[in-house]
Amino acid sequence: MKSRTLRAAAPLPTGDDKVAAVDAMFDAIAPGYDVTNRVISLGLDVGWRRRTVLSLGLAPESVILDLACGTGDLCVELARHGLTAVGVDRSAGMLAAAQTNAPLVRGDGLTLPFRAGSLDGLVCGFALRNFAALPPVLAECARVLRPGGRLALLEVDVPSQPLLRIGHRIWFGKVVPFVGGLVAARSGAPRARASAAYRYLPASVAYLPPTPELLALIASAGFTAVERHPLSGGLAQLLTGTRS
Questions:
Q1: Is 191 helix (H, G, I), strand (E, B) or coil?
Q2: Do residues 89 and 61 both lie within one domain?
Q3: Cβ neighbour number for residue 66 with a 10 Å cutoff
Q4: Quick one: pLDDT at residue 9?
Q5: Nearest to 152 by CA among 171, 127, 131, 179
Q6: Average of pLDDT values for 59-84?
Q7: Structural domain that includes position 185
Q8: What is the per-residue pLDDT across 11-58, written as a single tens digit (0 to 9) for each?
Q9: Strands 84-89 and 63-67
Q10: Are 165 and 149 within one domain?
Q11: CB of 27 closer than 8 Å to CB of 92
Q12: Which is nearest to 64 in space by CA: 7, 145, 138?
């Protein structure tokens, strides 16, 4: 029987195996997830989320979906800017650990529980690489957004500058798995699962297609003005577009 826990030494799972492994991982590390993110990103993730929300450029009270909302960090940021947030995530553990007043729904990115064209915007934080396949998820994002609705996808990245790339490789390849696993375990997550989860973080960048292909996938799903914005020297990236 295959383990549902992701292991750094094993090939990255695909298809249904990936879905099962990611579900199990996020349920396990939900306790202390927000604290761990602050630590391993050195607090930079707070500014990245703010930039994501600001990139929407939507009027107050616009209804925004936080896809793969996790514990609701982006929902909180949306509310700070006067936007109406609703979150969807597959992980029951993450939803149980959420710290937001926004309504949260357990659901799948392939079948979002919203009418076509009913939302003004959609954000997604650090989850693109966790979906089994991007085209159907992006198509579903386009379905639920009204024409002119805005999309903002926050993801990890790898710096192009050589020195930054070396530091990034050391930090995310060596330090993050140790520190992330330790912090998550002290917050109540099982130690083995926590360590495996934060080994997965640097490895999972391999799931992301090259930038031109990723931008083309977003455009072909039904978005115009698709742009990529490197953040913090390429440690993260913000992908934006407008529903055509």
A1: helix
A2: yes
A3: 29
A4: 47
A5: 127
A6: 97
A7: 15-32+159-205
A8: 789 999 999 989 988 988 888 888 888 888 989 999 999 999 999 999
A9: parallel
A10: no
A11: yes
A12: 145
